[in-house]
Write a structure and sequence with these properties.
Blueprint (H helix, E strand, L loop, with lengths): L1 H13 L11 H9 L8 E5 L11 E5 L4 H14 L3 E8 L13 H12 L4 E4 L1 H11 L5 E5 L9 E7 L4 H14 L2
Parallel strand pairs: 1-5, 2-5, 3-4
Antiparallel strand pairs: 1-6, 3-6
């Protein structure tokens, strides 16, 4: 009996592990693990392959080795499924001015990414200004940078997270009530 039990245990230990689902890429696991912790004023960036490695303490960069469109789609899906945050999108003001002659594939990229973003407010700013904003935010808040294999300039999608269940109008109304109560 003891030999049989030992044999069963040994066979179980030597048998290859059976998994019912495939392992997620590191970046998807990182996004899934981080999403519940993120709140308003945090950022998620989906950036091209030449985006600089920032050194602000709150900025964390993960190489996805995946397509920009797939990463944007996945991030927006994760944000939509969250209970706490909604996206405010920032894009490089330079992007509309880049031609396929200078960066082959840019027109295709624009036609693929814009439908993913059509339901969200988008603010365009010069690239250097957005990087400065992210750098400043990274001094106090967490910024998750997901670096893709995109090789077209000015294609990054910068997502500042805002509260899903409390709007700017509600905040303004609250502040007005608070100020009125002091009079």
């Amino acid at each position: 009996m003891l030999k049989t039990l030992f044999a069963v245990i040994l066979l179980a230990a030597l048998a290859p592990a059976q998994t019912t689902s495939r392992t997620l890429p590191v970046w998807r696991t990182k996004l899934a693990d981080t999403m519940p912790l993120l709140g308003h004023r945090n950022w998620i960036l989906v950036v091209d392959s030449a985006y600089p490695l920032q050194i602000s303490p709150g900025v964390e960069t993960v190489d996805t080795n995946d397509s920009q469109i797939d990463v944007v789609r996945t991030v927006l899906g994760a944000i939509e499924r969250s209970i706490q945050v909604r996206p405010v999108i920032f894009m490089d003001a330079e992007l509309p001015f880049i031609a396929d002659d200078d960066a082959p594939g840019v027109t295709t990229y624009r036609t693929e990414v814009m439908p993913l973003l059509e339901d969200y407010p988008i603010e365009q700013k010069p690239h250097e200004k957005i990087i400065a904003d992210v750098d400043e935010a990274g001094k106090t808040f967490h910024v998750l940078v997901l670096k893709t294999n995109m090789t077209i300039p000015y294609t990054s999608v910068f997502i500042r997270l805002d509260c899903k269940y409390w709007t700017a109008d509600q905040e303004k109304s609250l502040r007005t009530k608070m100020a009125a109560s002091k009079k």
